[in-house]
Each structure stands twice: as structure tokens, then as C-alpha cells.
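Schema walk-through. Below, the input block comes first and the output block second. Nothing else is stored per chain. Lengths vary across the set, and this one has 186 residues.
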Amino acid sequence: MTSFENRTPAAFDRVLVAISDASQVERAAELARQAGAGEASVLHLNLRENIGGRRFPLETDSAAAGIVEAAVLELRMAGINASGQVRHALVDRAAEAIVDAAAEWNADLIVLGSSRRGKLASRLFGSTALRVLQSADRPVLVASSARTDRVRRAHAAMPVTSTDRDIVPDHRARQLSDSVSATRSR
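--- output ---
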């Protein structure tokens, strides 16, 4: 059976696949395939940090282009017509850039790679995935990290409290809170 025969019927014909690093390529491509994508646009944001009025890139342009090329190849191998692009964005504007790109391309679905931040950092500072979920006007799929074999399915209309609980389970949040309190009292 070829990858073409293995593809599900097109539920979401146009899928924007937003990835932040090469480790997300395989999982994001699999999600796009499972969603029945007929066409995919890969988006990688070459993020910039704004320090003292100057903008500093977090990676080289060639590294960013390599990530997009790998994702486009993976999608094409899955039988999905794919193209890709690198855009520049400030770190705190990544979610906005993803949602804007999806609207410009008229995507039916947004697929996000998993977060690079740990669970505690995501809880304290927020995550790009959570911000996309809050502001997107179309369905969003978020790939779990490579360490787990789950896919969290979410839609932009999902209550934030539900999504927030997925980032750090309640029992784990209490453990973290207790350990921080214990450290402060020393």
C-alpha cells in the first residue's frame, strides 16, 4: 500500500504546518497526513529577540531554511503537495505570526509542533501553542513532544482552562507549587 492510498479523505484540504525545529518535522507531517491534508504550507519562524532596541536572531537563515526543506520533503513523501517559507518574527509575536500566516494562506487547519519549553516554563511564561489556540479562528492540532506518543487535539474555541490544564496537570502543578514554597521558606 502506498502512502497515497493510506491517506484519509480530505477533511482539512489546506493545512498550515508551523514548526520550530527539526525534531518536530516527522510528528507534524504525520498529523497533517492523518488530518487528510491535500496541500500543506510549512511555516518556520526565524525568531528575533529584541534587546535594547536591537533585534538579534536566534538562528541563522540557512538553519531556518534547512528546517523548512526537511518538513516539505517529509510531507511530499507522505503524498501531500507541500511548499514552505521562513518568516521573521519577534519572540513574543510568534503566535500572531502563525495565525496571520494561516489567514493569509486560507488554511483549513493549523498544525503546531510541540513546545520547546518545559512544562514549568510554559506555565510561568505561557506558550506559543496556547496563544495560537486562544486567537486562531480555525481548528488547531498540537503535536505532543517526541517523548510521548499522544496527540492533543484542540480547537480555537476550546476553553483556556482546559488547555491550560493539559500543559501541567493539576497534581503536578501542586507538587511544583509545594516545592517552590519549600525552597522559599529555607
